[in-house]
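Before a computer can learn anything about folding, someone has to put a protein's shape into writing. The three-dimensional part falls to structure tokens, numbers that each stand for a local backbone shape. The protein below has been through that process, and both of its lines are reproduced in full.
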Amino acid sequence: MITDTLLSEIQDINLTYLLLAQRLLKEDYATALFRLKIDAAMGELLLSLSAKQLGRLARINQLLCRLSLDDADQLRQLTHNQREQGMSQTHAALLMASASYQHA
């Protein structure tokens, strides 16, 4: 029963992620590629998927999105940041940007 609930939640997250990814790509393609950490070929493919294809893809038993911080120190810096609220968003953006280039 718990496994079924977890699988359902994973599928819900997948569909939400795919729909958000498509929306981001439609609104600002270049920024979406950067934020989603995907290349142009993946961006074009995601844009081309129909609602039926998105639903089918969302029903797999693995998360399609993943935490973009691979380094625990980066996550620690974001969660234990003592900066003012306005600066913490800038700090987070810089850390996320550096993570995408380190692992690209």
Remarks:
- The chain has a mean pLDDT of 85.
- The two ends are 39 Å apart (CA to CA).
- The helical segments are 2-27, 29-36, 40-48, 51-58, 72-79, 85-102.
- The chain has six helices and no strands.
